[in-house]
Design goal:
135 residues, three-stranded antiparallel beta sheet, 10% strand, elongated
Length: 135
């Protein structure tokens, strides 16, 4: 099912493409370079995980705090331990966070530097947009 943002508005006849492929070589290059359907699905899953404000708050806490236990993440985020635990379970299943057990305690951290870079870039992008509004 498509959302409204997936549906392009109808084009006026003057705006519609007369030729369906203007640059066949470029289309072929781009098509060959596109990731496969499975990769696109996994990427959409990661972005879907990051689209939830609660999970994003947990991830951001780990970005700032490094390795943390569930109770410390919950206290930092202002969420219940149950909600944080549920978010961490989803994030762990999708390789966004990693767990280390020490006795009965579980400590979570971002899985790898790629997740950290993705978050840093997203935060920079959001900050950049805000700086442009002030000008």
């Amino acid at each position: 099912m498509s959302s409204q943002s997936d549906v392009a508005p109808p084009l006026a006849e003057a705006e519609a493409c007369v030729v369906r492929v203007v640059d066949p070589a470029k289309v072929a290059d781009v098509t060959a370079a596109l990731p496969g359907a499975e990769t696109i699905t996994e990427l959409a899953q990661v972005f879907g995980l990051l689209s939830d404000p609660g999970r994003l708050r947990v991830i951001t806490a780990l970005l700032e705090g490094g390795e943390m236990c569930v109770c410390d993440i919950a206290a930092s985020c202002g969420h219940s331990e149950s909600a944080v635990s549920h978010a961490l379970r989803l994030l762990r299943a999708n390789r966004v966070v990693r767990v280390r057990r020490a006795g009965r305690m579980a400590y979570y951290r971002l899985d790898d530097s790629h997740v950290r870079m993705l978050l840093d870039l997203a935060l920079a992008h959001v900050g950049h947009g805000r700086e442009g509004e002030r000008s």
